């Protein structure tokens, strides 16, 4: 399973926490999407392309599906983590709030983000169950999944708990996970590969966002 983060948005550049806010790609993001689509079209054809239904992911996935000649299916379970009351806030400002300090001090994966946000366990259950279902449907086949920074971080953590994916998932980066459709055994093979962004400007801009503002 090839897991791709969406292209860049203006919020990634400004450090705004997007969460479930539905922003489109900016011009750099569209070019990044075209570059990752070109790379993936040169590899084995996927049986299907699955994507979060948020615009930034869906637009990236449409470019990939079109270039590979594969069917695209949108799935809400691949959407970004709900960031609660921090959605729309600048990252630096959010980190200074009493609400975030109280949340961060607990370090409990069951604790929901203030304002109706998801806990890490809720996020993990949602995205892991979705990928297991996709693996069951496509046993032995190559599949591409397009999602978001925080979601992909949790996916990679599940695949390899010893490897921290935090802030290592740049825009249109590729991570590869082998998932058994029979016993749901996960193996993380590749994390945050951006070799397709060869031009220095694109490599630098890919790191404009991180998990929190994904």
From TrEMBL:
Name a GO CC annotation attached to this entry: cytosol
> Which GO MF terms does the UniProt record name?
phosphatase activity
- Locate the residues binding substrate: 5-12, 56
Active site positions, chain numbering: 6, 80
- CDD domains, per database record: HP_PGM_like
The regions listed as transmembrane in this protein's record are: none
Family under the similarity heading: Belongs to the phosphoglycerate mutase family.
Q: Under which name does UniProt file this protein?
A: Phosphoglycerate mutase
At the highest ranks, the source species' classification is: Eukaryota, Viridiplantae, Streptophyta, Embryophyta, Tracheophyta
């Amino acid at each position: 399973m090839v897991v791709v983060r969406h292209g860049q948005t203006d919020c990634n550049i400004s450090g705004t926490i997007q969460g479930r806010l539905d922003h489109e790609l900016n011009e750099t993001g569209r070019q990044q999407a075209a570059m990752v689509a070109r790379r993936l079209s040169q590899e084995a054809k996927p049986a299907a392309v699955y994507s979060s239904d948020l615009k930034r992911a869906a637009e990236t996935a449409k470019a990939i599906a079109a270039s590979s000649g594969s069917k695209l299916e949108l799935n809400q379970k691949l959407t970004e983590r709900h960031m609660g009351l921090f959605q729309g806030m600048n990252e630096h400002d959010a980190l200074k709030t009493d609400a975030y300090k109280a949340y961060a001090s607990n370090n409990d994966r069951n604790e929901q983000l203030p304002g109706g946000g998801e806990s890490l366990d809720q996020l993990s259950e949602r995205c892991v169950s979705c990928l297991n279902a996709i693996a069951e449907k496509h046993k032995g086949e190559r599949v591409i999944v397009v999602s978001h920074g925080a979601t992909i971080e949790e996916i990679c953590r599940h695949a390899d708990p010893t490897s921290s994916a935090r802030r290592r998932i740049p825009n249109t980066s590729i991570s590869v996970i082998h998932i058994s459709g029979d016993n749901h055994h996960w193996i993380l093979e590749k994390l945050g590969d951006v070799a397709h962004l060869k031009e220095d400007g694109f490599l630098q801009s890919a790191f404009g966002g991180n998990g929190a503002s994904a």
